[in-house]
Amino acid sequence: MTRLGILISGRGSNMLALAEAVRSGHIAETEIAVVISDKPNAAGLTRANELGLQTQVVERRGRTREEHDRETVDVLRSHQVDFVCLAGYMRVLSAYFLEEFRDCILNIHPSLLPAFPGLNAQLQAIEHGVKFTGCTVHFVDETLDGGPIIAQRAIPVYEDDTEESLSARILEQEHQLYPEAVAFVVSGNYELSGRRVLLKR
Ligand code: GRF
């Protein structure tokens, strides 16, 4: 059994999509070991509790990034987590955290990276005038939204799109893409070649 730790800060809809994919067996031989939030009032925590998942709040409480991450890593270790999935987790990880889970941390971002990293990626896409955007699942490294790309899904941007309408259409795709990408990584059927995530031959 592969054990996932999911980190959230808010709504948690991607966490729920992963939980459903685990439940239905679309992500095979896997369980969700723990859902951790840095925000005690994250809506996703309530949803995770309703599903009977193990949850924990690890607040920053004025500590340095690394001190906070040490507690988070301790919680992940105590639940024997193999892979960490960031799902709307609004904190940048410290070098310590990255080293502890090297090549085992995944994130989903609402753009076709490397375009539009950082906050408000959907609005950035509209304002830039691109005709297509989408979502990306990638491994997390020390760069902001810049680690090796595991999977992407493209969608058109319409002239009458607002940030809300575009975000909603991207989110639908996120809920399909993240479970697919996690299933792929859990299968172990890939190799990292520089920046490239390749199917194992
Ligand atoms: C998603 O758009 C995700 O791509 C981004 O943050 C948002 C999280 O949404 N990283 P949710 O909390 O999973 O509903």
The shape, in one word, is globular
Order of helices and strands: EHEHEHEHEHEEHEE
Write down the domain tally. Answer: 2
Q: If strands are numbered along the chain, what order do they take across the biggest sheet? A: 3-2-1-4-5-6-7
Helix/strand structural class: alpha/beta
Structure overview:
It is a single chain. By secondary structure, this protein is an alpha/beta fold. The protein folds into 2 domains: 1-102, 3-Layer(aba) Sandwich (Rossmann fold), CATH 3.40.50.170; 108-201, 3-Layer(aba) Sandwich (Rossmann fold), CATH 3.40.50.170. The protein is 36% helix and 25% strand. It has helices spanning 13-24, 43-50, 65-78, 95-100, 121-128, 163-187, and strands spanning 2-8, 30-37, 55-57, 83-86, 105-109, 132-139, 149-156, 190-193, 196-199. A 7-stranded mixed β-sheet has the order 3-2-1-4-5-6-7, with helices on both faces. Strands 8-9 form a two-stranded antiparallel ribbon. Helix 1 packs parallel to helix 6. The radius of gyration is 16 Å and the shape is globular. The two termini are 24 Å apart. The mean pLDDT is 98. The chain binds 5-O-phosphono-beta-D-ribofuranosylamine (GRF).
Summarize, please:
The protein is of the alpha/beta class and 201 residues long.
What's the SSE blueprint?
Elements: E1 2-8, H1 13-24, E2 30-37, H2 43-50, E3 55-57, H3 65-78, E4 83-86, H4 95-100, E5 105-109, H5 121-128, E6 132-139, E7 149-156, H6 163-187, E8 190-193, E9 196-199
Parallel strand pairs: 1-2, 1-4, 2-3, 4-5
Antiparallel strand pairs: 5-6, 6-7, 8-9
The protein binds 5-O-phosphono-beta-D-ribofuranosylamine (GRF).
5-O-phosphono-beta-D-ribofuranosylamine binds next to helix 1, strand 5 and helix 6.
